[in-house]
UniProtKB/TrEMBL annotation:
Positions of region (Disordered): 1-20
A Pfam family matched in the record: PseudoU_synth_2
Known catalytic reactions: a uridine in RNA = a pseudouridine in RNA
UniProt-listed InterPro entries: PsdUridine_synth_cat_dom_sf (IPR020103), PsdUridine_synth_RsuA/RluA (IPR006145), RluA_PseudoU_synthase (IPR050188)
Residues covered by the Pseudouridine synthase RsuA/RluA-like domain: 102-248
SUPFAM superfamilies: Pseudouridine synthase (SSF55120)
Protein name, as recorded: RNA pseudouridylate synthase
Domain of life: Bacteria
One of the record's GO molecular function terms: RNA binding
Length: 316
């Protein structure tokens, strides 16, 4: 079996914490120039922008910038900076709670994506941390939804990433969440919810189907007042939107949820009112590299519980 060749190190540094795009030319092909291949391969970019990038020496190979008339070289590696989408700045602080040679643990605000995806690229926790902490090789140990606030873990060195990601894959991280939702006196709590969750690519909402359970969440009532309640949620699996779906299934959709029980029209990118009242409040695990017991706790609170009138009104 032919071994996959190792990708060369990019000659371009990250920009604003974002890696340059990498492209390898095909081994076979009859394009006369690199430009001809790029125009065919990247129609969304367009010939005009490709010509501009080549003239500006913005597309580079292993030995330097690619000239506009550079002959096609099978298997060659190219790098260039993507034209990033216009992004609205998320005006909330990303707090670093812990940093050592292996791990960075942060307290993420609502509305900030964890990693670049779709229209969120530079305005993500990963890009901010890579740039702000000067850690270009930083990578996520897991993923926290953009709308959920709280604890997110990142790995400093690429060689350590597998050890920490395996903790999450094997369910050896004890996670605790807090949520604010309605109160139902007829609902007996605590209780454990189990269901089979399916999340289809390109579909916003996950759904539950009649099949053997692949998800499990424990729901506990902490406090209640004025028709609302403060809950502790303990997921024993990590399905997409699991806690939001399980709470909605109990008739207790989390306040501020734009997807469950009903997908609402997407708000404007700069609408930061009434965030989802879900917080990743604590994580606990045995460090796979040091053997130490670790516990981290969020310093954030849920506005719908601490100041419900202000949360309902939204920012002035």
């Amino acid at each position: 079996m032919r071994r996959k060749s190792r990708r060369p190190t990019s000659p371009l540094p990250q920009r604003h914490g974002v890696d340059p795009a990498h492209l390898r030319l095909p081994i076979e092909g009859d394009w006369p120039t690199v430009r001809a291949y790029l125009v065919e391969r990247l129609p969304a970019v367009g010939a005009e922008r490709i010509d501009e990038a080549l003239a500006g020496r913005e597309i580079v190979g292993e030995h330097g910038p690619i000239a506009p008339e550079e002959p096609f070289l099978p298997g060659a590696h190219l790098w260039f900076y993507r034209d990033l989408p216009e992004e609205v700045h998320v005006p909330f602080e990303l707090v670093v709670l812990h940093r050592d040679e292996h791990l960075v643990v942060v307290d993420k605000p609502h509305f900030l994506a964890t990693t670049p995806r779709g229209r969120h690229v530079a305005e993500t926790a990963l890009s901010r941390l890579r740039h702000g902490l000067d850690l270009p090789a930083l990578s996520p140990a897991h993923r926290l939804d953009r709308l959920t606030a709280g604890l997110a873990m990142f790995v400093v060195r690429p060689e350590d990433r597998g050890a920490y990601q395996t903790l999450f894959r094997d369910r050896r991280v004890r996670k605790e969440y807090r949520a604010v939702a309605g109160y139902d006196p007829a609902l007996e709590l605590p209780r454990t919810v189990r269901s089979h969750i399916v999340k289809e690519r390109g579909v916003i909402a996950a759904r539950e189907i009649d099949a053997p359970p692949n998800s499990e969440s424990r729901i506990e009532l902490l406090e209640r007042r004025a028709g609302l309640a403060h809950y502790r949620l303990l997921p024993h699996s990590g399905r997409t939107h699991q806690l939001r779906l399980h709470m909605s299934g109990l008739g207790l959709p989390i306040l501020g949820d734009p997807v469950y029980p009903e997908v609402l029209p997407e708000p404007a990118p700069d609408d930061f009112r009434r965030p989802l009242q879900l917080l990743a409040s604590a994580v606990e695990f045995t460090d796979p590299l040091t053997g130490r017991e670790r516990r981290f706790e969020s310093r954030r609170s849920l506005a719908a519980w601490t100041d419900p009138r202000a949360w309902a009104a939204g920012p002035a």
